[in-house]
Amino acid sequence: MRSYLISLIVIAGLACLGLVACGDDDNGAAPEASTLQPAQAQDASGSVTWCIGKDTSGAFTAAVEAFNKENPNLNADLLELPESADLQREQQVQRLRAESSECDVLGMDVIWTAEYAAAGWLYDITPVVDQHEDEFIPSTVETVEYEGKKWALPYNTNAGFVYYRTDQVSQPPTTWEQVYEEAQKQDGLVYQGERYEGLTVGFLELLFSAGGSVLSEDGETVEIDSPEAREVLEFMGNGVKDGAVPKAVTTYEEESSRRAFEAGNATFMRNWPYAYALGKESAIADDFDIATFPGFAGNEGAGVVGGYNLGISAFSDNPEGSLAFAEFLVTPQVQKQAMEATLPATVTAVYKDPKVRKALPFAPELLKAVEQAEARPVSPVYTQISQAIYDNVFEILNGRISPDEAATTMSSQIEEALERF
Amino acid sequence: MAPGAASLHRRGHRSVFREERRLGAAMLTPALAVIALVAAYPIGYAVWLSLNEYSVITPGLSRFVGLDNYSEALGSSEFWDAMITTLVFTAASVGLELAIGLGMALVMHQAFRGRALLRAVVLVPWAILTVVTAITWRTIFEPELGFVNTMLTTLSLPGGDVVWLGERGYALGVMILADVWKTAPFMALLILAGLQGIPDELHDAAKVDGASTWQRFRSITLPLLVPAITVALIFRTLDAMRVFDLPYVLTKGANGTETLSLIAQEELVTNRNTGLGSALSVLTFLTVMGVSFLYIRFIGGNLRTLTEDEQ
After folding, report:
1. pLDDT grade, residue B11 (50/70/90)?
2. Global model pTM greater than 0.90
C-alpha cells in the first residue's frame, strides 16, 4: 500500500512538472512597442478602465465623472488599487504579466515607467507627449523618457520641502549644513529613514544637491562611487551620530515623521507637501512654515521628482479611448481641479491660477521645488537600484559601516542590477 | 488507517487482506488525485520555477540554470541570517506560547463563575488579524510617541529613549511578544480540548489514593495531554516558521529581522526574481518539512504508543 501511494504521488508530481514544462513556451523576445498617434484619440468610443491608487483626495472620481459627462461616446471607470505604492505596483505587475486587458490606463509612480516600458507593457506615445511638451514642467517630462522615447503623460508631480518651526528658527535655512547645525542645538530634524524608498529619496536629494549622480546620462555606467556620494553619506551618518537627527528616524516613514513633528518633537522635518494642510490643523498650526530645499556643499538645492504618470497598457482593448482619457486628465481644467484636491499639477499654467493659489498658498514654492527637482535614475531595474541605495544608507544611519564601504558596496550592487538578465 | 496498519502485523488471511488493501487504495485514489492537484502541482511548479532564471528586464524570457539559484541562495549570508532569525523566533515564541497556553488552559478548565465569558474573551487576540496586531504593536513601540516610551519617560524609568524597533535584539523581542500575545490563546484552546478529554475518574481515584495536586498533574494530566500538546506544537511551529506579517509590518526586515518568508517574498514580488525567489520558497518548504518530520519522529512516537496503549 505504501509503495502504491508513493508511486502515485511521484507520478502525479512528474505529471505536474511535465505540464509546467509544456506550458512554458513563452520564451520569445520582448514585443516591439507600438506607437499611438495623437489623431487616434479622435472619435474614440467604448469604455476604458483607469487603474491607479486609492482615491484619497477625491480627485480621481471627480475627473472620471467629468470625462463621462463630456464624452457621451466613451465611458471611463476607476479601478482603485491599494493606498501603498508597493502594493499598487504588485497589483499592476500581476495583471501585466498575465497580459490582462483589465487596466487600460495605468497610474504609475514615476519610478516604474522605465520598468514597464522595457517590459513591453506600454504604448509608445512620443508624438502625443511632444505635442503637449511645453505645457508641462520640464522635470516631470524627464520621468516619462526611456531609451529616447516617451511612454506616459505626467499626471501629478511632487517634491519635498523643509518644514521648520518658526518659533525656534527665525529665518528659513539656506543650506543643509545650517539645518543640521540648528537641529543639533534645538530639537532635531526628522525625515524618512526607514529601510525603504523614502530613504533613497532623502539620500538622492542631498546627492543631487551636492552635484552627484547615480547613473550616467545613457544609464549604462554607475557613477555613484564618487566623492559627492561619500560626502553625503558622511553627512547623513554624522547627523545621527551628533544628535542632529534622532535615532528614531530609522523607523520613520512619511506619517510617523509627520506625527513626531506635529507633536512638537522636532525643529525640522523633510516631507512632501501633503503634510502642510494637515499640519495647519495640528497643535503647531501657527508655529511652522515650509521652504524649498536649501543648498548643500556650496551648491543650489535640488530635490527628487515624485508623482504619477499615465501610461497606456499594451494589452488594452481600447488604446484609442485610453489615449483620449489620458489626454483629458492632463488638460488644465482637470489638472486645476486635482490640484485643488492637493495633487500637485504637472501643467505649469495651473500654478498661476488665482483659485489654486487660494487653495494652496504655497503653490509658487511648490512650482519652484518641482522645477529644481531631478528625476530618479530611469532604469528598468530601478527597484534593485533603490534597494542597493537604501540598504547601504540605512547601515550608515545605524553607524555600522563607513561611507567608503557604503559607496563601494552600493556601486557594485547597482552594477550587478544593471547586468541582470 | 489504524485498523489497516494494525492488520499488517498479523499473519495469515493474506489474500483477503491484499484484496481489501487494493480496494482501500482504489477508494483513496480520488482523494489523492485532489491532493495532487491542489498541493503537489503548486509545489512541483515552484520547484520547476526554481530551476530557471527569469528575465527581470524582458518578461517571458527565461533560461534553465539547474541548481544555480540554490547555490546562490545557500551561498548568501542573507539566507543564513534569515534562517537563524526564523529559528530563534520560532523557538522563543512557541516555547513561551506553550508555557502560557498551558497555564491559561489549566485556569480555564477550573469550574468558576464566568468561565464561558473568560473563554470567549481569551480568544479575542487570536481573532484579530495578524497585520492589525502588528500595526498596533508598532504604534505601541513607536520611539517618540509610542505608549511604552511615553510611559517609561513619564515614570522616569530607564529605556525611555530606546528605539525598540530599530535594534535587532529589541525588535525580535517585540516580534516574539506580538506573536505570543496573539497565539497563546490558540494554544490554550487546543490544550483545553485535551484537558477536557481526561476523565475525572482518574483524578478521583488518584485523590482516594492520596496523590497530591502536583503528583496528579505530573502523572495524570501531563502524560494524557501529550497528544493535544503535540498537535498544538506542530501547528504553531509550522506557522511560526513561515512568519511574514510581523516582520513585514514591524521592521520591514531591517536590522537583521528578515525571516525566510520575507526574503522569499522580496525576491519573488518586489524584485520579480522568480527563479531565486522560488528557490528560497522551496528551501523554506524543506526546512519546515524537516522540522515537522523531527516532530513526528520524536514526539509523534509518543502519540503512537499512546493510541496503541489505549487499544
Report:
1. low
2. no
Nearest CA in chain B to A20: B45
Specify the higher pLDDT residue, B307 or A359. A359
Selecting from B60, B254, B272 the residue whose C-beta is nearest the C-beta of A93 gives: B272
Confidence grade of residue B172 (pLDDT, cut at 50, 70, 90): very high
A291/A173 Cα distance (integer angstroms): 8
Residue A82's pLDDT is: 92
Cα(A50)–Cα(A53) distance, integer angstroms? 10
Question: Is the Cβ pair B36, A13 closer than 8 Å?
Answer: yes
pLDDT of residue B311: 41
What mean pLDDT, rounded, does chain B reach?
87
Distance of CA B251 to the CA centre of its chain: 21
**Can you tell me the distance from the alpha carbon of A378 to that of A202, in angstroms, rounded to the nearest whole number?**
17
Query: What is d(CA A257, CA A251) in angstroms, rounded to the nearest whole number?
Result: 9
The number of residues in chain A equals 421
Low-confidence ranges of chain A (pLDDT < 50): 1-2, 5-29
Residue of A nearest to B39 (CA): A13
Q: What angle do CA A184, A187, A193 make, to 5 degrees?
A: 80
Contact check, Cβ <8 Å, B44/A20: yes
Confidence at B304, pLDDT banded by 50, 70, 90: low
Q: Residue B148: how many CA atoms within 13 Å on its side-chain side?
A: 17
Query: Nearest by CB to A196, which of B47, B252, B269?
Result: B252
Helices (DSSP H) in chain B: which residue ranges?
2-9, 14-35, 41-50, 68-75, 77-109, 115-122, 124-127, 130-140, 147-154, 168-196, 200-208, 213-216, 222-241, 245-250, 260-265, 274-310
The answer to whether A144 and A133 have CB atoms below 8 angstroms apart is: no
Q: Do B56 and A381 touch (CB under 8 A)?
A: yes
User: Which three cell numbers, joined as nine digits, stand for A13?
Assistant: 508530481
From the candidates B19, B29, B38, B41, which should be mutated to test the interface with A, based on the most A CB atoms within 10 A? B41
Q: What is the pLDDT of residues A242-298, one digit of tens each?
A: 999 999 999 999 999 999 999 999 999 999 988 988 898 999 999 999 999 999 988
What pLDDT sits at residue A12?
Answer: 43
> Which DSSP symbol is given to A29?
P
Cα separation, A50 vs A48, whole angstroms: 7
Residue A39 in 3-state DSSP?
A: helix
3-state SS class at B52? strand
> What is the ipTM metric for this complex?
0.79
The answer to whether A365 touches A290, Cβ cutoff 8 Å, is yes
Contact by Cβ (8 Å): A374, A303? yes
Task: Give the bridge partners for A108, in sequence order.
Answer: A309
The answer to whether the CB atoms of A384 and B271 lie below 8 A apart is yes
At residue A139, the 3 state secondary structure works out as: helix
Question: What are the pLDDT digits (tens) for B81-122?
Answer: 999 999 999 999 999 999 999 999 998 888 788 888 888 888
Q: Name the DSSP letter for residue A282.
A: S
- The grid coordinates listed for A65 are 465623472
Burial of A184 (0-12, 13-18, 19+ CB in 10 A): middle
B163 and A248 within 8 Å at the Cβ level: the answer is yes
- What pLDDT score does B98 carry? 95
**d(CA A358, nearest CA chain B) in Å:** 34
> Which amino acid belongs to residue A227?
P
The percent of residues above 90 in pLDDT, for chain B, comes to 47
Provide the β-strand partners of residue A164. A268, A289
